[in-house]
Write a structure and sequence with these properties.
Blueprint: H1 11-19, H2 21-37, H3 42-56, H4 59-63, H5 77-82, H6 92-106, H7 113-122, H8 125-147, H9 157-162
Helix pairs in contact: 1-2, 2-8, 3-6, 3-8, 6-8
Length: about 160
């Protein structure tokens, strides 16, 4: 980690909450709202989220699976997202969500009229705005965690047991 976290403190809670409470608490609320209030389907939500996690390199984000109503995406979904352009596992909306995530993160200037025609054929304007806000959250906070080394301090219980 690039920041000193006092012994016994959770790195994420400390950095986000105690080091910069005025900014961190607002960021945490925004991040939580993305998960709590998204109207996007689970598969397109996870396709976009996982593609950003893969691009950011955030270990925790790549291992995490969003759960809704007791449902999660299937094992191997992350591999399909990584290969979004050629896989037959993703439906049209999930494939487009992964493509949008990749282009948004790596070359937003490439989002041309042809892309937007495909996007508006699959998503409403409100869904596009929501997905775009989700992408912004994941890029910003996943990258923050990765750059500061928090992504390896914040692990899922199964990963922690394996380590």
């Amino acid at each position: 980690m690039l920041v000193d976290v006092p012994a016994g403190k959770d790195p994420i809670s400390y950095v986000w909450g105690e080091m910069v409470p005025r900014i961190g608490s607002a960021a945490a609320k925004f991040s939580a709202a993305v998960y709590a209030h998204s109207s996007l389907g689970l598969r397109e939500f996870e396709a976009a989220r996982l593609r950003i996690a893969q691009i950011n390199g955030c270990v925790f984000c790549q291992e995490w699976r969003t759960e809704r109503d007791g449902q999660k995406v299937e094992d191997g979904f992350d591999d399909a997202v990584r290969d979004w352009a050629s896989t037959d596992v993703l439906g049209d909306r999930a494939r487009l969500a992964a493509e949008y995530a990749e282009r948004y993160a790596e070359d937003h200037h490439s989002l041309d009229d042809a892309f937007w025609q495909r996007m508006t054929a699959q998503y409403t304007q409100a869904e596009i705005v929501e997905l775009t806000m989700c992408l912004g959250s994941w890029i910003a906070f996943g990258r923050l965690n990765r750059v500061l080394g928090l992504d390896t301090a914040c692990v899922l219980p199964t990963t922690q047991a394996a380590r």
